Amino acid sequence: MREFGYQRARDVSGAVAVLDADPDARFLGGGTNLVDLMKTGVERPARLVDIRELPLDRIESTPDGGLRIGATVTNSDLAAHPEVRRRYPALTQAVLAGASGQLRNMATVGGNLLQRTRCGYFADVTQPCNKRTPGSGCPAIAGEHHNAAILGASDHCVAVHPSDMAVALTAFDAVVSYETADGPGETPLAEFYPPVGDSPHRETALPQGALITSVTLPPAPVVSRYRKVRERASYAFAIGSVAAALDVEAGAVREVRLALGAVASRPWRPLRAERVLKGAPADARAFAAAADAELAAARPLPHNGYKVTLMRNLVVAVLTELAEEAAR
Questions:
Q1: Distance between CA 145 and CA 135 in Å, rounded?
Q2: Cα 139 to Cα 153: distance, rounded to the nearest angstrom
Q3: CA–CA separation, 160 vs 52, rounded Å?
Q4: Mapping DSSP to helix (H, G, I), strand (E, B) and coil, where does residue 255 land?
């Protein structure tokens, strides 16, 4: 591990000023991803700026009936919050599906959105990786890729985003607020992660040195669900996941929000599927047609084609369960 400096941020503007002056500095929240990457040499910051004492740890209702979640709220506190559980059950389920209880006690909302891929080639500094070293290549394409992307990938990278929370937040049309040396800004989470293209090392749309301050959720249908498939019963990253919110009226889909996890370099918002479902009967046949419309664009590699069938079945199962719940 590279030797590094450490300081505690006293206010948001001071924290941002440090990173504005020193591009090799990093913000430290829970450290559950960053510190691991420092140990392996993937991340080599010159300085850590501890932001855990900043006043960004509140969850509060917004005037329009949504929620504003501070960036340093821990995953455990988020999952347990009564308004999150009542209004956004899929978010609670997604958070509880990720990591272990001990890690959730440390991990923060802002850090969760910024966590980096768990692709084995990215984590191994002896291997080439375009995400870690631009232009060095992507060995996963011809190598181990059973959990690689099937949507939105490129010849430069097939890694998937690891966050469960981000999938649910994407389905709920969350907006990320941040602070920079030039002032505040915000971006919809659907635009927070740029397409991988030929620059997989550019993982977010945040300006250099920006500090995430909060995530805002608009009002959403109360009927929602998150389903995760993994290779062992607990404490494992997804090989496929679905977050869905559904509003049914007179047996037809009035509103639907979907996001898919572990299929792309970012949480995948299946807009084709949503368009197919608007106004359609809330039944398994329509749900399957919507999934097929989205997955027609899938480009699996030789060892991850199973994800196409997996995701189709997941979408149908979760939407069917929500339709039955909405009908009760």
A1: 19
A2: 14
A3: 28
A4: strand
* Average pLDDT, consecutive stretches of 10 residues, N- to C-terminus, the chain (328 residues): 95 96 96 96 97 98 97 98 97 96 97 97 98 98 98 98 98 98 97 97 96 97 94 93 97 97 98 98 98 98 98 98 92
DSSP codes, 202-239? ----PPTT-EEEEEEE----S-EEEEEEESSSSS--EE
Task: Determine phi and psi for 19, rounding to 5 degrees.
Answer: -70, -30
pTM given for the model: 0.97
Which tens digits make up the pLDDT trace of 65-99? 999 999 999 999 999 999 999 999 999 999 999 99
Per 3-state DSSP, the chain is made up of helix, strand and coil in percentages (nearest 5) of 35, 20, 45
Strand-by-strand arrangement of the 59-61 sheet:
59-61, 67-70, 211-217, 175-180, 183-188
Q: Is the dihedral of CA 226, 67, 80, 15 positive or negative?
A: positive
Q: How far apart are CA 130 and CA 138, in angstroms?
A: 6
CA distances from 109 to 79, 201, 215, 233, 289 (A): 11, 22, 8, 24, 34
DSSP string, 267-301: -B--HHHHHHHTTSBSSHHHHHHHHHHHHTT----
Contact 58, 70 (CB under 8 A): yes
**Cα-to-chain-centroid distance, residue 163:** 4
d(CA 260, CA 251): 24
CA pair distance 31, 25, nearest whole angstrom: 14
**Is-contact 315 287, C-beta < 8 A?**
yes
State how far the Cα of 125 lies from the Cα of 40, in Å rounded to an integer.
8
Strands 224-230 vs 67-70: parallel, antiparallel or unpaired: unpaired
Residue-wise pLDDT for 10-44, tens only, equals 999 999 999 999 999 999 999 999 999 999 999 99
